[in-house]
Design goal:
Blueprint: H1 8-13, E1 14-16, E2 22-24, H2 38-45, E3 48-49, H3 52-61
Antiparallel strand pairs: 1-2, 2-3
Amino acid sequence: MPKMKTHSGAKKRFRKTANGKLRGRRAYSSHILEKKSPKRKRRMAKPVEIAPADTKRVRNLLGGGK
């Protein structure tokens, strides 16, 4: 069997931390920023842990195995 390939889009968007957690960009952070408060925009600049519901799918795309 050939090796599974890592999903190119996923590897640009998500990172695994040293402890194996997944981090990615926060949602709603790229446009319509005028109406959002500065505090909210600062929070959105930092990466956030991926929701538990999505971790299985993201791990699979990153080549996380079975």
